[in-house]
């Protein structure tokens, strides 16, 4: 039993990891729960400060089945994230069962925590979301995941490491979306996701200037949105662009219903496979995308490609979609069928299948 600030939380076998529980982690965790009977886990999270309280890093306990959030006792506050992690695990040593998994996405955490593996009876899963190999961390981990094709190729023969790639899971709202493609005089292009430099928004705003199109940008944080608006004004296309800002997941299909063509204008700086590639495939709306390795390796021939940062090539891809509607509709159907494998339930099945081959 672990006493918290305001509840008593019963700990079963524990898994832990060091970043917030967004959809990728929850899908991965649910597969481990199904395989190993883990019924609770702990992860690090930056708590939002309340009035008069400084922001702090602490642990949140989550009981997976009913998502019961519990803040841990003040004893574990005020420490660095990693030290907090170690202190908590030591305190819980007597309560730990045999199925204890630590999920880490920071290489330095893997190296430091590996020194306590035997003492505290846990195994380390290293989720590498970057385009680097982190050899020392790979050596210390029991299992390594990567979403980078380059990293996978470099490490797939690495001794004593259970390594495999996994797909980002796509949620029901996008899998169930039913797109249509109609011939129009003016087409609405759609972009979904963050507005970081490697996503190519600067290029996209320039590329649409002379096309019979409008652009709908769905998502983006306020600071990046403001920068994008300034660029749209500078390039003389502000009248063609609609910025929605943040949109809740359940409302995204409604926003997509106005979109004729999706765009993925990544630059060469995009080294890992972006989540939106899986989402665009699953949605089935025809997609114009930069022809870069991390996109092509997943999307295959289900996207319409252009050379990165090449406006002429972008225009040619746009015309390929709009001037041959029958082929476009055929590709949409094929993309939708191909994208079903990225549904979160299918991703769990594949992870469970992989786990059958792994003995940790």
Q: Could you walk me through the main structural features you see in this protein, from its secondary elements to its overall organization?
A:
This is Glycosyltransferase involved in cell wall biosynthesis. Keywords: Transferase. InterPro entries: Glyco_trans_1. With 360 residues, this protein is of the alpha/beta class. The chain has 2 domains: 181 residues, Rossmann fold; 171 residues, Rossmann fold (3-Layer(aba) Sandwich), CATH 3.40.50.2000. The two termini are 27 Å apart. The relative contact order is 0.11.
* Large-scale geometry: elongated
| Number of DSSP strand runs | 16
- Main sheet: strand order: 6-5-4-3-7-8-9-10
Mean residue pLDDT: 76
Share of helical residues: 25-40%
**CATH fold title of the largest domain:** Rossmann fold
Outline the low-pLDDT stretches. Answer: 1-23, 42-80
Structural class: alpha/beta
Instruction: Please report the first level of CATH classification, the CATH class of the largest domain.
Output: Alpha Beta
- CATH structural architecture of the largest domain: 3-Layer(aba) Sandwich
Main beta sheet: strand number and arrangement? 8 strands, mixed
How far apart the termini lie comes to 27 Å
Please, how many domains? 2
Number of helices: 15
């Amino acid at each position: 039993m672990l006493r918290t600030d305001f509840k008593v939380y019963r700990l079963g076998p524990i898994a832990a990891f060091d970043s917030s529980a967004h959809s990728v982690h929850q899908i991965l965790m649910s597969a481990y729960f199904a395989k190993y009977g883990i019924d609770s886990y702990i992860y690090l999270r930056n708590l939002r400060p309340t009035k008069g309280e400084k922001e702090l890093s602490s642990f949140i306990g989550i009981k997976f089945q009913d998502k019961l959030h519990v803040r841990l006792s003040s004893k574990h506050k005020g420490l660095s994230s990693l030290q907090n992690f170690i202190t908590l695990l030591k305190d819980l040593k007597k309560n730990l069962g045999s199925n204890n998994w630590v999920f880490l996405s920071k290489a330095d955490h893997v190296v430091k925590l590996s020194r306590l593996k035997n003492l505290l009876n846990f195994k380390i899963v290293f989720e590498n979301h970057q385009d680097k190999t982190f050899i020392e961390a790979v050596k210390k981990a029991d299992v390594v995941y990567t979403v980078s094709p380059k990293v996978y190729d470099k490490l797939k023969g690495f001794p004593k490491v259970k390594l495999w790639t996994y797909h980002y899971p796509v949620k029901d709202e996008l899998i169930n979306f039913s797109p249509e493609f109609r011939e129009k005089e003016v087409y609405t292009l759609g972009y979904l996701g963050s507005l970081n430099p490697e996503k190519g928004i600067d290029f996209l705003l320039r590329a649409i200037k002379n096309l019979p199109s409008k652009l709908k940008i769905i998502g983006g944080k306020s600071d990046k949105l403001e920068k994008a608006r300034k660029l749209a004004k500078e390039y003389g296309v502000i009248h063609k662009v609609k910025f929605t800002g943040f949109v809740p997941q359940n409302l995204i299909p409604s926003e997509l219903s106005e979109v004729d063509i999706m765009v993925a204008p990544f630059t060469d700086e995009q080294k890992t496979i972006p989540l939106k590639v899986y989402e665009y495939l699953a949605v089935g709306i025809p997609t114009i995308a930069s022809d870069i390795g991390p996109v092509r390796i997943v999307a295959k021939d289900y996207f319409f490609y252009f050379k990165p940062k090449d406006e002429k090539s972008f225009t040619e891809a746009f015309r390929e979609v709009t001037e041959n509607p029958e082929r476009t509709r055929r590709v949409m159907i094929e993309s939708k069928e191909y994208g079903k494998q990225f549904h979160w339930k299918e991703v769990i099945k594949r992870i469970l299948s992989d786990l059958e081959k792994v003995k940790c």
